[in-house]
């Protein structure tokens, strides 16, 4: 991302405080509370709004980098954009069906979920990027220094005040600690592809 501004971890506020958040040099180690998640209604019938998201105001684009070193069902980390409890987007890597899955959940009253298996991303450094323009958010992701891939083009309310930043959750276990290595903001993408 050109014209990038790296955000200090102190720039954000937690939606729900994690069990622990500790700075380790330039990195942030976040330990999720067991049972934490973000989801609204669809298929499962429940509402969870206690994922650990460290958010600050978003103008255009945001990137979060983290280590995908987790291996328990529904362990997840990445990036969250949030307007309110019924309007948000989370994107990143979630461990599901025995492998890491690259995906996004878009919630506009009700949640949806799109995933693609990325078994070769296990234990590697992942960067997720969301770029907001007009009535849409474009989500891209990459592993290490490989090229970014398009994850999702999703509708999102134009003109709404949006907060964004790193997030993680551990719906099924205790002890998930995610290493976040970078949080940056910058201008919106100029092209979809």
From TrEMBL:
Region (Disordered): 1-22
High-level lineage: Bacteria, Bacillati, Actinomycetota, Actinomycetes, Geodermatophilales
Biased composition regions of type Polar residues, renumbered to the chain: 1-16
Protein name per the record: DUF1349 domain-containing protein
Family annotation (InterPro entries): ConA-like_dom_sf, DUF1349
